[in-house]
Design goal:
With 670 residues, the protein is an alpha/beta fold. It folds into 4 domains: 2-176 and 324-346, 3-Layer(aba) Sandwich (Rossmann fold); 179-319 and 355-382, Rossmann fold, CATH 3.40.50; 406-490 and 599-661, D-Maltodextrin-Binding Protein, domain 2; 494-594, D-Maltodextrin-Binding Protein, domain 2, CATH 3.40.190.10. Helices cover 39% and strands 19% of the residues. The strands form 6 sheets. A 6-stranded parallel β-sheet has the order 2-1-3-4-5-13, with helices on both faces. It has a 6-stranded mixed β-sheet with strand order 7-6-10-11-12-14, sandwiched between helices. Strands 16-15-17-26-18-27 form a 6-stranded mixed β-sheet, with helices on both faces. Strand 6 (196-201), helix 7 and strand 7 (231-233) form a beta-alpha-beta unit. Helix 8 (256-268) packs across helix 9 (281-292). The longest helix is centred in the first third of the chain and has 24 residues, at 2-25.
């Protein structure tokens, strides 16, 4: 019976959300919260019974023809969090649910506004002392006061927003806000013109951090898909840090001055899309965004509607449909179907959370980005993409124990993608057999995509090139474990090639020419050549036309076919296409070679437990000693062996990079 009631409760919530969305599409404005005059909303100790107070906004109950005593039979109170009933965000959205209950059910509703945290207990007790039939508390911070009151009054039904049930007479109203926040991050990254977006919270509590984590991971996912490097200012997820990460918090949910100050600082750092998670504090950020001509994503409710004075800055809003959940909680109390000791979870799937319309940005958001957002939404619903929430340091126990752990091993697309994937699958199977882990392989769309996948927790093992590893270590704390061995060495050289009859005999001859590279982050294919070009007096950004062709093999082929005047690869990438182009070494010649470069890596994401990493490393070393393993490694990247190394192995390359006058950040802009 209880299960049926809960299912009915969830089903009604979903239906009401759909109906509310349809109403919004028809042009209906979101109702403003009731703001009783001071003489009607007396201090808690003097508050009149709800039936004596003037109905909010003069709205008449739907059943006004019923006898007065029947109308006054049931009263429901709501205790707000700090920030005000008219915060145009959190409290206001919950109160709208109470107003819906008043209109639809004919009940009396009242709120008591908490000015400070010490008001929580006092306000709840005031409703209890007046004999209210049910109480809604709004916010994580009210959990202790709600639990204490519920335990002391077991016959009174309670519902609390943003906290799970802690007693048989409490219904928890929770929301998977990390899901729409992930979409918001993806949207922000797609709309940013500066390559930097930002976010901040009010108080560092889980329901706030949940937004920030989702937003950050949405940006990372966009970077992974597009090979971009959009930065997130204001939050960085870190399983080892208290509260799940480090970020910017105002420490309150009231000060719009703080909201303006935080936004101005972020804008000065290059952010052009801001996502505040701090209730009315965010209105100060909206004002700053309006002044500076930047964009903002609202929170909790559609702030284009609730804060129309700033509607020109809202690209969208993360919807946390508390109004519908609160209404359903009151309805269940009123109809006798209330189920305490249970929890409701609003998700993208049941429309308990979502992303608001683009409104005035409808024509500014590219159709391609809209299509991607819908695809990402469906992937989130199916559980195919992780939002990063909850933030937990992975351990074998937490991930299901040995034999159930899943690891993704990602490879850079430096050669023939099909061959890389085939050998990668073989290696994944061999590792699985030796470790008991479920290891899968993929080939990323770019070098940067591997880095971003590791940073977002979507890949645990990365076969990164030299510069890619240094960048991943700098950005996300990725750690190398193994270096590849070729021709008995853990280093290699790069080369610049051209057609034999091109007339190009030196680097200086490349001015005005077309230059093919495998990837902007390829060490031998661009990092070293860029330094070489600059050393020869050429401006790599203006003196040559750079063309990205996707792999070292493609560079050789493009030069052979005359599609590029010259290009850069590792030594000697010509051998990799010799089976298809027999005379490639005759027609494509080398004009210069680089100094030694430390070989590419097998690296691990920072959240991979040490015991897991050690087991995978030992498995790979064992694989490299077998005939089957040697064949797979040879096909993969022409690897002859693997050798354990640590991060210091790459210090010499870092020093050479510094000596050239370039920094890691210079290449991150490519």
């Amino acid at each position: 019976m209880e299960e049926k009631m809960v299912k009915r409760f969830l089903g009604i919530i979903s239906l009401l959300v759909v109906l509310s969305i349809l109403a919004a599409c028809g042009g209906a404005a979101t109702p403003a919260p009731a703001q009783p005059a001071q003489e009607e909303q007396k201090p808690a100790e003097e508050a009149k019974p709800a039936e004596e107070q003037k109905p909010a906004e003069e709205a008449q109950p739907a059943e006004e023809q019923k006898p007065a005593e029947e109308m006054a039979a049931h009263r429901y109170g709501m205790v707000t969090d700090v920030g005000g009933i008219d915060d145009k965000s959190f409290n206001q959205t919950a109160w709208n649910g109470m107003l819906i209950a008043k209109e639809k059910l004919g009940v009396e509703v009242q709120y008591l506004e908490s000015q400070q945290q010490t008001d929580y207990e006092k306000n709840i007790k005031e409703f209890i002392s007046q004999g209210y039939d049910g109480i809604i508390t709004v916010g994580f911070l009210l959990a202790d006061a709600t639990k204490a009151a519920a335990e002391a009054n077991p016959d009174v039904p309670f519902a609390i927003v943003d906290f799970p049930s802690q007693a048989p007479n409490i219904l928890g109203l929770q929301f998977a806000v990390d899901q729409p926040s992930f979409l918001a991050g993806y949207l922000a990254a797609g709309m940013s013109e500066t390559g930097a977006v930002c976010t901040y919270g009010g108080i560092k509590i889980p329901p706030v951090v949940q937004f920030l984590v989702g937003f950050e991971h949405g940006v990372k996912y966009y970077n992974e898909k597009h090979g971009t490097d959009v930065k997130v200012l204001g939050w960085k997820t870190d399983p080892a840090a208290e509260g799940g990460g480090d970020g910017a918090f105002t420490g309150n949910f009231e000060s719009t001055d703080d909201g303006r100050s935080f936004a101005e600082n972020f804008f000065d750092e290059g952010c052009d899309v801001i996502f505040p998670v701090a209730g009315p504090v965010g209105l100060g950020s909206a004002a700053a965004a309006q002044d500076r001509g930047f964009m903002m994503i609202g929170v909790d409710t559609d702030q284009y509607i609730s804060a129309p004075e700033f509607k020109d800055v809202f690209v969208s809003s993360v919807l946390k449909n508390m109004d519908v959940a609160v209404f359903e909680a009151v309805k269940a109390m009123e109809e006798g179907t209330f189920q305490g000791g249970t929890n409701y979870m609003g998700t993208l799937e049941n429309n308990g959370v979502g992303l608001a319309p683009f409104h005035e940005f409808e024509d500014k958001v590219p159709q391609e980005l809209k299509d991607e957002l819908e695809a990402v939404k469906q992937a989130l619903i199916k559980g195919e993409v992780s939002t990063g929430w909850p933030v937990e340091a992975p351990t074998e126990e937490a991930m299901g124990g040995e034999g159930e752990m899943s690891l993704v091993m990602s490879f850079v697309p430096s050669g023939d993608t099909e061959e890389i994937l085939a050998s990668g699958d073989e290696l994944a199977q061999m590792i699985s057999e030796r470790t008991g882990y479920n290891v899968t392989a993929n080939v990323a769309t770019s070098y940067a995509a591997v880095i971003e996948a590791m940073g977002a927790g979507n890949a645990q093992i990365g076969w990164l090139n030299t510069f890619g590893y240094i960048l991943a270590h700098e950005k996300y704390g990725v750690e190398v474990a193994l270096a590849t061995v070729r021709f008995g060495s853990t280093s290699y050289k790069g080369q610049i090639i051209t057609q034999k009859d091109s007339g190009i005999t030196s680097v200086t001859d490349l001015k005005g020419k077309t230059f093919c590279r495998p990837d902007p982050l390829s060490t031998s294919g661009w990092i070293i050549p860029r330094i070489t070009l600059a050393a020869a007096g050429l401006d790599p950004d203006s003196d040559i036309k750079v063309v990205d062709v996707g792999s070292h093999n493609n560079v050789v082929t493009a030069v052979y076919n005359g599609e590029c005047d010259a290009g850069a690869t590792y030594v000697d990438a010509r051998s990799s296409v010799e089976d298809d182009i027999a005379d490639v070494k005759e027609k494509v010649v080398v004009i210069t070679e680089s100094a030694d470069i430390p070989n590419d890596t097998v690296s691990f994401a920072p959240d991979v437990p040490a015991e897991v990493r050690e087991k995978v490393v030992q498995a790979l070393l064992d694989i490299a000693s077998t005939d089957e393993g040697k064949a797979a490694l040879e096909q993969l990247y022409e690897i002859a062996g693997l050798e354990p190394v640590d991060d210091s192995f790459y210090d010499g390359f870092r020093a050479d990079l510094d000596a050239s006058g370039y920094s890691i950040e210079d290449f991150m802009q490519e």
